[in-house]
Amino acid sequence: MGRRSDHTREELKSLMLNAAITIVVEQGFRGVTARKVAEQAGYTVGSLYQVFKNLDDLIVQLNEQTMDEILLLIERELQQQGDEITVMHALALGYARYASENSNRWRMVFEHKLPTTHPLPESFQHKILSCFVMITQRFAQLFPQKKDEELLQAAQALWSSIHGICILSVTGKLDTAKAGNMEPLIGCLVDNFIGGLLASSQK
Who is most buried in 71, 72, 119, 148, counting CB within 10 A? Predict the structure, then answer.
Protein backbone atom coordinates (compact mmCIF):
# COMPACT_ATOMS: atom_id res chain seq x y z
CA MET A 1 0.00 0.00 0.00
CA GLY A 2 1.42 3.38 -0.97
CA ARG A 3 1.93 6.15 1.54
CA ARG A 4 -0.81 8.80 1.41
CA SER A 5 0.07 11.72 3.68
CA ASP A 6 3.77 11.48 4.49
CA HIS A 7 4.81 14.36 2.23
CA THR A 8 3.69 17.76 0.99
CA ARG A 9 2.71 18.23 -2.64
CA GLU A 10 6.16 19.59 -3.55
CA GLU A 11 7.91 16.81 -1.66
CA LEU A 12 5.75 14.24 -3.42
CA LYS A 13 6.59 15.76 -6.81
CA SER A 14 10.29 15.60 -5.97
CA LEU A 15 9.94 11.98 -4.86
CA MET A 16 8.25 11.07 -8.14
CA LEU A 17 10.91 12.85 -10.21
CA ASN A 18 13.72 11.15 -8.31
CA ALA A 19 11.98 7.80 -8.73
CA ALA A 20 11.71 8.43 -12.47
CA ILE A 21 15.42 9.29 -12.64
CA THR A 22 16.27 5.98 -10.99
CA ILE A 23 14.16 4.08 -13.51
CA VAL A 24 15.59 5.98 -16.50
CA VAL A 25 19.17 5.37 -15.36
CA GLU A 26 18.56 1.67 -14.74
CA GLN A 27 16.10 0.78 -17.50
CA GLY A 28 16.20 3.60 -20.04
CA PHE A 29 13.47 5.96 -21.18
CA ARG A 30 11.18 3.16 -22.40
CA GLY A 31 11.12 1.69 -18.90
CA VAL A 32 9.31 4.69 -17.42
CA THR A 33 5.65 4.02 -16.66
CA ALA A 34 3.29 5.65 -14.17
CA ARG A 35 3.02 2.40 -12.22
CA LYS A 36 6.78 1.90 -11.97
CA VAL A 37 7.39 5.51 -10.92
CA ALA A 38 4.69 5.39 -8.25
CA GLU A 39 5.95 2.06 -6.90
CA GLN A 40 9.54 3.31 -6.82
CA ALA A 41 8.39 6.38 -4.85
CA GLY A 42 6.28 4.26 -2.49
CA TYR A 43 2.95 5.76 -3.52
CA THR A 44 -0.06 4.81 -5.61
CA VAL A 45 -0.48 5.73 -9.27
CA GLY A 46 -3.29 8.06 -8.22
CA SER A 47 -0.81 10.04 -6.14
CA LEU A 48 1.35 10.59 -9.21
CA TYR A 49 -1.60 12.12 -11.05
CA GLN A 50 -2.19 14.49 -8.15
CA VAL A 51 1.10 16.27 -8.87
CA PHE A 52 1.49 15.69 -12.64
CA LYS A 53 -1.09 16.08 -15.39
CA ASN A 54 0.03 12.82 -16.95
CA LEU A 55 3.19 10.80 -17.59
CA ASP A 56 4.26 13.18 -20.37
CA ASP A 57 4.14 16.05 -17.89
CA LEU A 58 6.45 14.17 -15.52
CA ILE A 59 8.90 13.34 -18.31
CA VAL A 60 8.95 16.92 -19.58
CA GLN A 61 9.73 18.22 -16.08
CA LEU A 62 12.45 15.60 -15.69
CA ASN A 63 13.89 16.63 -19.06
CA GLU A 64 13.88 20.24 -17.91
CA GLN A 65 16.03 19.20 -14.95
CA THR A 66 18.46 17.58 -17.37
CA MET A 67 18.51 20.75 -19.48
CA ASP A 68 19.28 22.77 -16.33
CA GLU A 69 22.33 20.56 -15.75
CA ILE A 70 23.45 20.99 -19.37
CA LEU A 71 23.04 24.77 -19.14
CA LEU A 72 25.15 24.86 -15.98
CA LEU A 73 27.81 22.81 -17.75
CA ILE A 74 27.86 25.21 -20.71
CA GLU A 75 28.04 28.25 -18.43
CA ARG A 76 30.91 26.71 -16.46
CA GLU A 77 32.93 25.77 -19.53
CA LEU A 78 32.42 29.16 -21.18
CA GLN A 79 33.87 30.83 -18.09
CA GLN A 80 37.16 28.94 -18.47
CA GLN A 81 40.30 30.86 -19.34
CA GLY A 82 41.88 30.49 -22.77
CA ASP A 83 41.42 31.45 -26.39
CA GLU A 84 38.06 30.93 -28.04
CA ILE A 85 38.98 27.71 -29.84
CA THR A 86 40.37 26.16 -26.64
CA VAL A 87 37.19 27.08 -24.77
CA MET A 88 35.03 25.60 -27.54
CA HIS A 89 37.04 22.38 -27.36
CA ALA A 90 36.49 22.19 -23.60
CA LEU A 91 32.79 22.93 -23.98
CA ALA A 92 32.24 20.34 -26.70
CA LEU A 93 34.14 17.65 -24.80
CA GLY A 94 32.35 18.52 -21.56
CA TYR A 95 28.99 18.11 -23.29
CA ALA A 96 30.08 14.81 -24.83
CA ARG A 97 31.21 13.47 -21.46
CA TYR A 98 27.90 14.49 -19.91
CA ALA A 99 26.05 12.62 -22.65
CA SER A 100 28.22 9.56 -22.09
CA GLU A 101 27.97 9.58 -18.29
CA ASN A 102 24.22 10.31 -18.26
CA SER A 103 23.31 8.61 -21.51
CA ASN A 104 19.78 7.47 -20.68
CA ARG A 105 18.71 10.82 -19.24
CA TRP A 106 20.41 12.71 -22.06
CA ARG A 107 18.77 10.57 -24.74
CA MET A 108 15.35 11.00 -23.16
CA VAL A 109 15.54 14.78 -23.73
CA PHE A 110 15.65 14.15 -27.48
CA GLU A 111 13.71 10.90 -27.80
CA HIS A 112 10.59 11.78 -25.84
CA LYS A 113 7.87 13.09 -28.14
CA LEU A 114 4.78 14.96 -27.03
CA PRO A 115 1.52 14.64 -28.97
CA THR A 116 1.37 17.14 -31.83
CA THR A 117 -1.43 18.95 -30.00
CA HIS A 118 0.84 19.60 -26.99
CA PRO A 119 3.84 21.84 -27.77
CA LEU A 120 6.84 21.93 -25.48
CA PRO A 121 6.37 24.32 -22.55
CA GLU A 122 7.85 27.76 -23.17
CA SER A 123 10.23 27.26 -20.25
CA PHE A 124 11.68 24.18 -21.96
CA GLN A 125 11.97 25.92 -25.32
CA HIS A 126 13.72 28.84 -23.63
CA LYS A 127 16.32 26.52 -22.09
CA ILE A 128 17.09 24.92 -25.44
CA LEU A 129 17.45 28.34 -27.07
CA SER A 130 19.64 29.53 -24.19
CA CYS A 131 22.19 26.81 -25.01
CA PHE A 132 22.61 28.19 -28.52
CA VAL A 133 22.52 31.83 -27.41
CA MET A 134 25.46 31.32 -25.04
CA ILE A 135 27.50 29.67 -27.79
CA THR A 136 26.46 32.37 -30.26
CA GLN A 137 27.73 35.05 -27.89
CA ARG A 138 31.09 33.31 -27.77
CA PHE A 139 31.15 32.98 -31.56
CA ALA A 140 30.54 36.73 -31.80
CA GLN A 141 33.97 37.30 -30.27
CA LEU A 142 35.56 35.10 -32.94
CA PHE A 143 33.53 36.44 -35.86
CA PRO A 144 32.52 40.04 -35.03
CA GLN A 145 31.73 40.77 -38.68
CA LYS A 146 29.00 38.11 -38.91
CA LYS A 147 25.33 38.86 -38.38
CA ASP A 148 23.46 37.51 -35.36
CA GLU A 149 21.41 35.09 -37.46
CA GLU A 150 24.59 33.74 -39.08
CA LEU A 151 26.18 33.20 -35.68
CA LEU A 152 23.09 31.42 -34.36
CA GLN A 153 22.98 29.18 -37.41
CA ALA A 154 26.69 28.37 -36.98
CA ALA A 155 26.13 27.48 -33.31
CA GLN A 156 23.19 25.25 -34.23
CA ALA A 157 25.16 23.54 -37.00
CA LEU A 158 28.20 22.85 -34.81
CA TRP A 159 26.15 21.57 -31.90
CA SER A 160 24.00 19.39 -34.14
CA SER A 161 27.18 17.79 -35.47
CA ILE A 162 28.56 17.24 -31.96
CA HIS A 163 25.20 15.80 -30.96
CA GLY A 164 25.39 13.36 -33.85
CA ILE A 165 28.77 12.06 -32.71
CA CYS A 166 27.42 11.70 -29.16
CA ILE A 167 24.42 9.70 -30.40
CA LEU A 168 26.67 7.36 -32.38
CA SER A 169 28.89 6.94 -29.33
CA VAL A 170 26.23 6.24 -26.68
CA THR A 171 24.43 3.79 -28.99
CA GLY A 172 27.64 1.93 -29.80
CA LYS A 173 27.52 2.84 -33.49
CA LEU A 174 30.98 4.44 -33.55
CA ASP A 175 32.41 0.96 -33.07
CA THR A 176 30.36 -0.29 -36.01
CA ALA A 177 31.76 2.51 -38.17
CA LYS A 178 35.26 1.80 -36.82
CA ALA A 179 35.49 5.49 -35.94
CA GLY A 180 37.21 4.97 -32.60
CA ASN A 181 36.84 7.20 -29.55
CA MET A 182 34.45 10.16 -29.79
CA GLU A 183 36.79 12.72 -28.20
CA PRO A 184 39.31 12.91 -31.09
CA LEU A 185 36.39 13.09 -33.53
CA ILE A 186 34.86 16.00 -31.65
CA GLY A 187 38.22 17.76 -31.49
CA CYS A 188 38.64 17.33 -35.25
CA LEU A 189 35.11 18.59 -35.86
CA VAL A 190 35.58 21.73 -33.74
CA ASP A 191 38.95 22.54 -35.33
CA ASN A 192 37.70 22.15 -38.89
CA PHE A 193 34.36 23.85 -38.32
CA ILE A 194 35.86 26.94 -36.69
CA GLY A 195 38.79 26.89 -39.12
CA GLY A 196 36.36 26.93 -42.02
CA LEU A 197 34.42 29.84 -40.54
CA LEU A 198 37.64 31.78 -39.98
CA ALA A 199 38.75 31.14 -43.56
CA SER A 200 35.41 32.23 -45.01
CA SER A 201 35.43 35.36 -42.85
CA GLN A 202 38.81 36.41 -44.23
CA LYS A 203 37.74 36.27 -47.87
Answer: 71
